[in-house]
Amino acid sequence: DYTTVGMNNCGSDSDDNDDDYVELANDGDTDMSIGQSRLQCLFCRNQASVDLDDLINKHLPAAHGIANFASLLVSIGVQDQPTWVQFVAFVRSKNFNATTTEDGRLQQLLDEFRVTAGAVQDGSGDNTMPSAPVGDIDDPLMYEVDIEELLQSQGLHATADLRAAGKSNSNSQAIDKDQRIVELELQVESLKTQIVSMSTVLRRFALGGNSDDVIPAASSRTIAELKDDEDGYYVDSYSGASIHAEMLQDRIRTGGYYDFIAGNPLLFNERVVMDVGCGTGILSMFAARAGAAKVLAVDCAEVIARAKEAAAENGLENRISFYRGKLEQLDELKVGVKVDAIVSEWMGYCLLYEGMLESVLYARDHCLKPGGAVYPRICNLLLCGIDSEELYQRNALYFDNVYGVRVSFLKERCLSEPHVAYDLQSDWVATSSALVCSIDMLTASAYTSAKVESVPVQLTALRDCKLHAIVGYFDVDFLGNGDAGVNVSFSTGPLSQVTHWGQTVFYLRSPISLSSGQVLEFYVSILPPHDSPRSLLVEFDWSNGTRSEFRMD
């Protein structure tokens, strides 16, 4: 009988010999085990050797640049006999012939098998993987090669070893360059995260804290990625009339925008202006009256219909165009122009609440002309400490004794959720203020500006005091330093006239006693949580190793 082995004329590059085979006589005494069968190379039409070791250790490195065949197999998912048979069948079905060590088609072939085999295994693709080569010929490589023995002979003895080998295969023909780039980018991002985490741990350790404590990671989701049903609560909260009436009646807020826009007609005259989050359209109408050639007003809430009515009521319907929808979907809104200026009242409680900053910076990056402006230009987030036994008793301690009844869960809520206050008295302010972050709307990063991570804070006691809470607030400058025009600024701090933002109060579980001139040092982080990029997680790390955590939803 005969053993039939597919083989083309050795050394021939002709495609006419694809079906040429020679029959090798088998007298029954010849041992046709591995190492003596005449084996055809998988990757070229050469009868490489009668010896498998020579095929793997001499021919593959010399002819195809494959220095470690076992690692190559592992890298494409071949780790057992069934996948080896599939791989041989797959390659034979392609009638493949790589003629040089630099033949890029070899890498494409390997990539195609890895993707196809992976899709078949996880069910995401159609089962088109051949189980035998084209025709009726059985290839000795399929059934006579013990792939597991081969892998073990290369020092790969366990699944973990095989995976490690697959990842470490350095042969240029075996590595998917694009995939490697992605892997390296992920490693870089991972290292960045580790560096931040390590610096936090070291800092906490130096302060006497627990090195196992970590800051809750910020949300990786963006506002643009929120689905309509996920963002519905936020959008709907701005659809009613009362919230807009409250904002319009805020003289500091609305008057500040009016004073700036009306006082700087040269910044708006004949300009194209975008109003991000227009609400009732009040800022759009201010800009139109200041001489803007066109105002593009964008909002995703239902109130935009009322804004359009207000523009018509004031004879400005031809100067203002209204677009309902998410700003990040501007293509769908068909706002196909560049603007000279962006105005927006995007600030939330503690400045960063609700995540609207991201949308304004998106507008800047995608819609603003070079040399354009964003108003207001500068927003600063600050912290200070207050001493008020009255406020503390009225809120944090009230639930210890509600007409003789203790309601601990409400006390816990008070101590873990910030409180927006509108009645802080100036004489309660017991420390200096500390700048936590300063956002320049023309240069701020859309990714990092909405996050405060482990920022050191120093508050100096103005007198002997007992701190009951830390207070967050922000200041606004419409123009930056050196900008032409009449600047307008306002503050939402406890020493200024109250606004609809109030101040954000973080009650301390244990009040802190300070002497006049004493400095309180701690670190603050303000991050959007994983489950809600419009919310905030606030964390204070104290020098005694304790931590205060708050969530603002």
Give a topology summary.
Elements: E1 2-6, E2 21-25, E3 39-40, E4 47-49, H1 52-64, H2 69-75, H3 81-93, H4 104-122, H5 140-143, H6 147-153, H7 159-168, H8 177-206, H9 228-237, H10 241-248, H11 251-263, E5 272-276, H12 282-289, E6 294-299, H13 304-313, E7 320-324, H14 330-333, E8 339-344, H15 356-367, E9 368-375, E10 378-386, H16 389-394, H17 408-416, E11 419-421, E12 434-440, E13 452-460, E14 465-477, E15 489-491, E16 503-514, E17 519-527, E18 536-542, E19 547-552
Parallel strand pairs: 5-6, 5-8, 6-7, 8-9
Antiparallel strand pairs: 1-2, 3-4, 10-12, 10-14, 11-16, 13-17, 14-15, 14-16, 17-18, 18-19
Compact overview of the structure:
Helix content is 33%, strand content 22%. It is α+β, with helices and mostly antiparallel strands and 553 residues long.
3D architecture notes:
- Helix content is 33%, strand content 22%.
- The protein is an alpha+beta fold and 553 residues long.
- The protein folds into 3 domains: 173 residues, no CATH class; 39 residues, no CATH class; 330 residues, Hnrnp arginine n-methyltransferase1.
- A hairpin with a 4-residue loop joins strand 18 and strand 19.
- Helix 2 packs across helix 7 and helix 11 packs parallel to helix 12.
- The longest helix is centred in the middle third of the chain and has 30 residues.
